[in-house]
Amino acid sequence: MEKSYTEKIQIHKANKLAGLHPATKFLVVILYSVCTFVLSSIKLTKIGLPLAIIPWFLVVLVLCAVSGAMKKCIKALKAVAFIALVIFLVQTFIVPGGEVLVRFGFIRICEKGLKTAISLSFLILNIAGIFVWFFQTTENKEIARALEESGLNYKATYVFISSLQMINVLSGNSKTIMNAQRARGVETEGNMLVRAKAFFPTLVPLVLGALIGSEERVLTLEARGFSMEGKKTHLFNLEKSGAEGTMKITAILVTVLIVIGRAALWIL
């Protein structure tokens, strides 16, 4: 029997971790971030390096793997890892202060620089990584529906989701325009100057296309009664995977243990 439109737009996820309710996933993100900051405050070794934060990133990799979204997450994680690596190198070799730990000619690694490098780079890697897991396992309409369920105004929800979608829309339109220029014989590859010459002419059609698209979206929303007052109906409904309670308890328990452990180390 053919499915109705309402049945087709529903999201059914076989993976229980990926199918968690967005509110549960966001709780995991918040608690993970709290644990990240707590672990970054633990100083190990004689010079007090925040090494406890380094293996903590394995939790993100485990979540991505168990959710069945490792392939989707790996591209974004590579970009985050590159940024974290740049910050690590800059902080390690440029920031002075404290005892000089290693010296290679004019290059030196100072105690303060190494501490800052590990703390800052792995803070970014962990927090950005857990958000990558959240957005790669949660579709935009799931986030929008969860926000409305939480009581957020539907207009604010639409603005938030539109902002997320606009990045992908503009990126796709930019590629389309560049491909059209390449088909017309415009040189788009080469050194930075050649690419700049090819890039700036794409801005005009890109901006105009965005303006035209926004007008079309406004007309579509008005045709669907977006600005009408009254109770809104929803064709799309969120499903729960059944593992929300277990995940919440686990996340809270791990956070409490880490906080208690940090407090014990501080007292001792």
Low-confidence stretches: none
How big a fraction of the residues is strand?
under 5%
Class computed from helices, strands and strand pairing: mainly alpha
Strand order of the largest sheet: 1-2
Query: What distance lies between the first and last C-alpha atoms, to the nearest angstrom?
Result: 67 Å
Shape: flat
Jot down its keywords.
9 helices; 2 domains; flat; 67% helix; mainly alpha
General description of the model:
By secondary structure, the chain is mainly alpha-helical. It folds into 2 domains: 14-138 and 238-267, no CATH class; 146-223, no CATH class. It contains 9 helices and 2 strands; from the N terminus they run H-H-H-H-E-E-H-H-H-H-H. It has helices spanning 5-8, 22-40, 58-66, 70-94, 111-136, 140-149, 154-183, 192-223, 244-267; strands at residues 100-104, 107-110. Strands 1-2 form a two-stranded antiparallel sheet. Strand 1 (100-104) and strand 2 form a beta hairpin. Helix 2 packs parallel to helix 9 (244-267) and helix 7 crosses helix 8 (192-223). It is flat. The N and C termini lie far apart (67 Å). The model has no long low-confidence stretch (mean pLDDT 81).
SSE blueprint and pairings:
Elements: H1 5-8, H2 22-40, H3 58-66, H4 70-94, E1 100-104, E2 107-110, H5 111-136, H6 140-149, H7 154-183, H8 192-223, H9 244-267
Antiparallel strand pairs: 1-2
Short description:
Helix content is 67%, strand content 3%.
